[in-house]
Amino acid sequence: NKLCAPENKTIKVLPLPIPNDYLGKPLILTPLLEKGKYKKAQHLSRVKPDIGNITSYSGFFTVNKECDSNLFFWFFPAQNDNWKEAPLLLWLQGGPGSTSMYGLFEELGPFESYPEGLKKRQYSWNVENNLLIIDQPVGVGYSFTGKSCYPQNETAVGEDLYQAVVQFHELFPVFQKGKFFISGESYAGHYIPALGHTIHIHNPSAKVKINLA
């Protein structure tokens, strides 16, 4: 069954009650990436079934082990045939404290949300770009921490984001040589330079270098 209608049609998608014991544990990919098992991590993070024939991957990256802090991501490869060569675009919501799922469903992602269900967005940013959505800072949206270690300044936010971006490039090594763009709105004007500065500081000695455009 299709969960998303093509073009301008919508298909009704009703929320189903799911018992808590059915949800399972968060899919934290960091242990697999540390062992170099990125292909297994890709397989586990693949969202199934595809929504409206849109391929996507989702899960969590541990960005601070001592605090058990984990950032949630949802990745949508470009819809064209040359997605491996397409730029990688990170979207950060503002707020502060707003989930990036708002931007995904209401502004630029491959889906539009309506009371009747989901519709495929005609001018999604992932038509020509690889779109990476991250809920941040820790504690926003699906991102969580085990010890209430919420970041207190942009320096901490930038470091957490950097750890997530590096792990994403380990999850998809194909993007390590491609261009990486950071985008967002509103208070993300604080997050974007924080991440860019952190990349600039770490890149010279980093094993995984981020090709910031």
TrEMBL record:
Q: Which InterPro entries match?
A: AB_hydrolase_fold, Peptidase_S10, Ser_caboxypep_ser_AS
Q: Gene3D superfamilies this protein is in?
A: alpha/beta hydrolase
Pfam families linked to this entry: Peptidase_S10
* Position of the signal peptide: none
Q: Which GO terms fall under molecular function for this chain's record? A: serine-type carboxypeptidase activity
- Which UniProt keyword terms apply here? Carboxypeptidase, Glycoprotein, Hydrolase, Protease, Signal
Q: What is its EC number?
A: 3.4.16.-
Q: Which GO terms describe its biological process?
A: proteolysis
Q: Which family does it belong to?
A: Belongs to the peptidase S10 family.
Designated name of the protein? Carboxypeptidase
Q: Which organism is it from?
A: Cuerna arida
For this protein's source organism, the top of the classification is:
Eukaryota, Metazoa, Ecdysozoa, Arthropoda, Hexapoda
